[in-house]
Amino acid sequence: MNAPLLAFLTWPQRWLLLAVLLALSALLLFGRIASLDEFIKARGEGGIMALQFAGSAARAAHLLVAWRGLEDLLRSQTRWDFLFLLVYPAVLSLACAMLAEARGNPLPTIGIFVAWLALAAIPLDAIENLATLRMIDHGASEPLARWITVCATMKFAIVLTAAGYLLVAGIATLFQR
After folding, report:
1. pLDDT digits 0-9 by tens, 119-144
2. Which UniProt keywords are present, listed alphabetically (predicted)?
3. CA separation for the pair 39, 63 (Å, rounded)
């Protein structure tokens, strides 16, 4: 199985793409999404992640009531997340794929698998965002609250898996050289 995102890129192009995607991820996360989340957290109910892990319509409804008046801000943050979800999985996937091909990596097959897995965060995050927008506009419901929590849990598991691979395989590769 071949790693995603590498087929037509030379090593210098891969590094350049990784740097650009990483910079864009940081700009979106810290420049837009996190700053908007600070306004939401100021209401004392946690940020948007509280809604992602609400797990029930009752808890989601409680959060939405606490955030009443911030609907435009919640929508804006969620819309920025649609752009972010196209970037951060690509960063993780490309980094895992590049590490999988690195000389001395004792876990290349796992890296290729995790590189593909990282791309699964895109549809999970998109479903989560669509359900979030639906709840903001129409109120909480049990199915939406559960969908958001399931998607967020799977998405964060994927992100942590990719980060774990990069850490473990990265250290192992350094020691193999």
Report:
1. 999 999 999 999 999 999 999 999 99
2. Membrane, Transmembrane, Transmembrane helix
3. 14
